Backbone:
């Protein structure tokens, strides 16, 4: 795959020789120029094999992601589900969403996450990967509501915040468990953020 | 197309023993092994009654696997190297003396003293001499855009008689390089390829993974994404048949990653990573 940001629409793709995708039209909510730079359309779509209206090349979105990001996959970057949440609960495969501050989240994170068994739509702000010296790391994994607007909207604490959901930063349910730090250095995505 | 019936490998084995079955291999004595990526272990199973025998602990996530001469060779993804064990699980040290970025799959040709590994991270094939703790003999086909150069190599199989290496490669469709299987001589010369593109459905295979070589030029290609095994004819480049179907039920495949043709009956063993099973198709390797 190319590592350059696609700068135009389908016309550009066709010019670059991607005639097979010429039949794809862009979803209204997806500015093509905002497709994540690490992917190209054909990583996930092929028109003449698309079996679903989405023109995905086959079976299932999670398996699609895992065929590259799972064991023995071609991407060096590995990931696993988190507590029953599949990839697209957290990620937008097309990227390009705007968070509530009008910015784009890192790593194709959605602007709104709906946790399983819940109808709550949680805003996500993920503009910093934190630091290993901890906070302040505004709008990172958990910044203890660093912008003081009363909303825990960072990428981990959007779910891991106070009741009725899963808090559990510590047994005492405080937010003092490594706020501002790069959580994934200890809780690796390749282990489902578990270990 | 109706899927052929698949025999289940055994639910007890699945529940207790596999978390993330990845590659499967057997040695010349018939011992069978499976790597478990998330459990960081290699599981030895008894092919006659499909029983769990033992498991060996690896210091890292494991993918690639080969077994020969009383040794088990394991691709350690976390530590970027190939590890050696004896069949009882005793660690014998690092193999090959070099760092292998992502040793996703391996195969052995004992007759010609070769261990051949896919380095998915470095996008190349590493050819080692097997002797002792191994020495690198050559490296085949670094990344590049020419059609026969590797783009995203994942799986491999070796034809010892012909001294050929079959490599599953995801291609790079944006540069119009389709998923394919590329065939090299041991010396790295290009001998041909089987394209994943074609047929009525457009693709014979889209995300090729493990490979196995059957009779009369038939190449078994696991498709991790489409959840099936494409049996390809090397001579014509066409599909002979497909085996298996995508799904979660017993007998179906969800992120299958490897195939092994085993024993006199040529039973076909398939690791189905996301269902945590190994499926067995009696005489499937005769297709």
Residues:
């Amino acid at each position: 795959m190319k590592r350059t940001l696609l700068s135009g629409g389908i016309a550009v793709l066709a010019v670059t020789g991607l005639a097979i995708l010429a039949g794809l039209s862009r979803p209204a909510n997806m500015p093509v120029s905002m497709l994540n730079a690490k992917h190209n359309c054909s990583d996930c779509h092929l028109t003449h094999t698309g079996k679903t209206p989405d023109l995905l090349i086959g079976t299932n979105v999670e398996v699609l992601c895992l065929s590259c990001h799972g064991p023995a996959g071609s991407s060096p970057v590995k990931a696993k589900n988190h507590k029953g949440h599949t990839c697209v609960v957290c990620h937008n495969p097309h990227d390009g969403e705007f968070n509530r501050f009008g910015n784009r989240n890192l790593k194709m994170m959605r602007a709104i996450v709906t946790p399983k068994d819940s109808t709550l739509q949680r805003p996500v702000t993920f503009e910093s990967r934190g630091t290993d010296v901890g906070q302040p790391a505004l709008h990172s994994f958990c910044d203890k509501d660093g912008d003081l607007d009363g909303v825990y909207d960072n990428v981990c604490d959007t779910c891991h915040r106070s009741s009725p959901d899963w808090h559990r930063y510590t047994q005492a349910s405080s937010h003092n468990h490594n706020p501002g730090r790069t959580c994934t250095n200890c809780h690796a995505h390749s282990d489902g953020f578990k270990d | 197309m109706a899927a052929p019936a698949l025999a289940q490998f055994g639910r007890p084995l699945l529940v207790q023993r596999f978390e993330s079955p990845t590659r499967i291999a057997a040695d010349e004595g018939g011992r069978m092994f499976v790597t478990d990526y998330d459990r960081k272990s290699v599981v030895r199973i008894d092919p006659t009654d499909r029983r769990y025998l033992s498991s060996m602990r690896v210091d890292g996530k494991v993918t690639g696997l080969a077994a020969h001469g009383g040794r088990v060779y394991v691709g350690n993804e976390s530590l970027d190297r190939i590890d050696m064990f004896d069949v009882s699980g005793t660690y014998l040290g690092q193999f090959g003396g070099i760092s292998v970025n992502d040793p996703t799959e391996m195969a052995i040709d004992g007759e010609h003293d070769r261990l051949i590994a896919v380095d998915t991270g470095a996008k190349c094939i590493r050819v080692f001499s097997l002797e002792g703790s191994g020495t690198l003999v050559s490296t085949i086909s670094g990344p590049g855009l020419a059609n026969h150069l590797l783009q995203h190599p994942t799986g491999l199989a070796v034809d010892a008689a012909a001294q050929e290496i079959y490599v599953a490669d995801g291609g790079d469709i944006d540069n119009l390089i389709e998923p394919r299987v590329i065939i090299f001589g041991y010396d790295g010369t290009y001998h041909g390829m089987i394209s994943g593109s074609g047929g009525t459905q457009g693709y014979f295979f889209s995300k090729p993974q493990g490979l196995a070589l059957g009779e009369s030029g038939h190449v078994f290609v696991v498709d991790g994404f489409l959840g099936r095994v494409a049996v390809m004819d090397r001579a014509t480049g066409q599909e002979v048949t497909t085996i298996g179907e995508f799904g979660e039920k017993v007998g179906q495949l969800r992120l299958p990653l490897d195939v092994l043709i085993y024993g006199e009956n040529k039973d076909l063993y398939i690791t189905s990573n996301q269902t945590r099973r190994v499926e067995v198709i009696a005489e499937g390797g005769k297709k």
Observations:
- The longest strand of chain B covers residues 51-57.
- Residues 1-15 of chain B have pLDDT under 50 and may be disordered.
- The interface with chain A takes residues 20, 22-23, 37-38, 61, 63, 102, 104-105, 120-121, 152, 154-155, 170, 172-176, 201-203, 206-207, 209, 224-227, 246, 254-255, 257, 273-274 of chain B (CB under 8 Å).
- The domain at 6-286 of chain B is CATH 2.120.10.30 (Neuraminidase).
